[in-house]
Write a structure and sequence with these properties.
Largest sheet of chain A: 9 strands, mixed
Order of helices and strands of chain A: EHEHEEEHEHEEEEEEEEEHE
Strand content of chain A: 25-35%
Number of strands of chain A: 16
Oligomer: homotrimer
Shape of chain A: elongated
Largest interface: A-C, 31 and 37 residues
Structural class of chain A: alpha+beta
Chain lengths: 265, 265, 265
């Protein structure tokens, strides 16, 4: 990391927007490396929703430069036998509990290195049983940002814990996925990628079903349809998305994460 | 900007507090300029409420040093024919969709330069149709912060798109404005400026009406009246404000943005 | 502060998450010291809840390095006779209205210096009556971060304003405290410290009562009990905490700040 003049450390947690717990982590990091650049990814992950955290992290991580250090804390098992791990994935560094929080990332690109954090000399002198984000992950991130080699952090591991991934089924003239995330506009982001859509017509022959709701065609952007219309498009992260122009599709349709989405043509 | 050791880039969006979309913009900016200082103005603008964004931006922008770069993304027309523009106003740099988001600022001080962003070599290599904040505005802001001259960004423009501005009527012994913003304390900020109030008596001869509610006098600060009293004062941005001491005037009175406010004396 | 390459200034307010008022303070600080590192502690303190602000500040402040400057603005008396004070406590610098906001900190460690801010040459040229956070506290923090000696800020004071502190009663085989804070997970943080618990058995002989609810034993971490169980543990800040595993104790039990908590053994 010698070539990064100001090392970037990002934080993603389920601590809630405005929680002072985040600032405690930042204080620890800055105590060790006052030159770290601290960026909040989000702290609005629903409490203990590992799957939502994994999805958000996957979405954001690669917008950051190579060498960035991403710390993710959604940790219902804090203080239990679950390990805390370091992983290097696609040139970026991750520190998280080994509970599936990195599984969306690792499904896209295999980690080039995984280390279980066992070397407590890199941790805070006193480690609480309930806040390893502050007492283990924050100081380890700070030390990595100062140039510590990750191999020193502990014991190599071969694989990460993975969440059961809902499957996208690709059939002749049919794709079956699900809503994976709802963004702040109420848009329904599915797990159907633009690559899966290559052979799907974008005109009205494409029938998209979500719960009992239905729309035709895959558009380019929101303003391609009049207000209050349900439309489908490929969103900014490369996934099929359902939106109601000028309103919240999630609220209007009463749809939640996990709802099946089907394209037929 | 050679004299600014750490260039400041601020972000104002309607992405919602805690949205990871903001972090995506920050990642892109830091990838191009790791020395940029990133400051959140607010991400709590109601979805697609351009007028609220324009008001907030006007309120905050000039607290920042000359040379600061303000990026504002409230962009219901993303991907449509609306342009993205650069404007220099009062020594600060603005990047926003040309949809009225800069109109409150431009109404105060005429822009000294306006450029439509057309030079795509300064954008991300791949531009999505739905997230120009990340793919166009963020990289352009980063490049400006590195010293790129704004004239290179595209085509000069003569004027900015403007929102229809509600008018303040100044009559003999009467001023008629409206509530323009509700702050986080529930205070009702109007568009009546302290300059307009120069001839208004501050004692009980000044009758202030808001909807069916009424109060007398213009006070100096909240604690000049007892708890639970409706009072008027000139707020910290220089606008007449109605507040209920120790509570939320917006919630107590059921008042919204746009409600007429009248002063008579 | 000559040895701190990038001086840290933290901000704690009741302005609300997403309020642009925070950005106004940051703009003023960066105008004076572009090298300041700005960290948000929280802006989600309930409006004008000085006691909650004092508790959060106490909890977070000492995670930051020596020399950090903490600015706290929960200021219902803004513009009134209440003073704004600088205090040095345990090697960190504090700027706040003198209304009790520093009382939890000062109860732990006596301030080594207190100065009432009276020297208006260190303030903004124009000081509003309603936003001293921006017009007095922000510029003073910036100037301290540039090396200004705190003694120049105004008039020495002997003591800080203190909030009435609810008392923890320690009796033979009984401790009586109260819920002092509810965190973002809905955990109930009490004012009973780990030091007070030294003689309390951690097994089922320890009976903990909160309102009409009851649990036995003091555990190490959340995952020591099955989901949906009420459990007691010592939390990450060293206080007895009541939690419902995998859910919000505050919501499930309907408990608020101030509810008595009793341990008997």
């Amino acid at each position: 990391m010698a070539d990064t003049p100001r090392p970037i450390i990002t934080l993603l947690t389920d601590f809630g927007v405005g929680s002072p717990y985040v600032a405690q982590m930042k204080g620890i990091i800055l105590s060790l490396n006052p030159h770290a650049v601290l960026i909040d990814v989000t702290h609005a992950i629903a409490p203990q929703d590992i799957a939502a955290g994994a999805w958000a992290l996957r979405d954001v991580a690669e917008s950051f430069p190579l060498g960035s250090i991403h710390v993710a804390v959604v940790d219902p098992g804090v203080g239990s036998a679950r390990e805390i791990i370091y992983a290097e994935i696609a040139g970026r560094h991750y520190i998280a509990p080994d509970n599936g929080l990195l599984s969306c990332l690792a499904a896209r690109t295999s980690p080039s290195r995984i280390v279980a954090l066992t070397e407590d000399r890199f941790w805070q002198p006193r480690v609480s049983a309930t806040f390893h984000g502050r007492d283990i992950m924050a100081p380890v991130a700070a030390r990595l940002s100062l140039g510590l080699d990750a191999s020193q952090l502990g014991v190599p591991r071969q694989r990460l814990e993975c969440l059961p991934e809902p499957e996208v089924r690709i059939l002749p003239n049919k794709i079956e996925g699900q809503v994976r995330s709802i963004d702040s506009f109420g848009n329904l982001v599915t797990d159907i990628t633009s690559e899966m859509l290559v052979e799907v017509p974008t005109d009205e022959r494409a029938q998209i079903h979500c719960d009992e709701h239905q729309t035709q065609g895959i558009f380019r952007t929101y303003s391609d349809q009049p207000e209050m219309t349900l439309l489908a498009l490929v969103g900014s992260s490369g996934f099929l998305e359902l939106a109601i122009v000028g309103d919240s599709a999630a609220a209007m349709l009463g749809v939640r994460v996990g709802t099946p989405v089907k394209i037929q043509w």
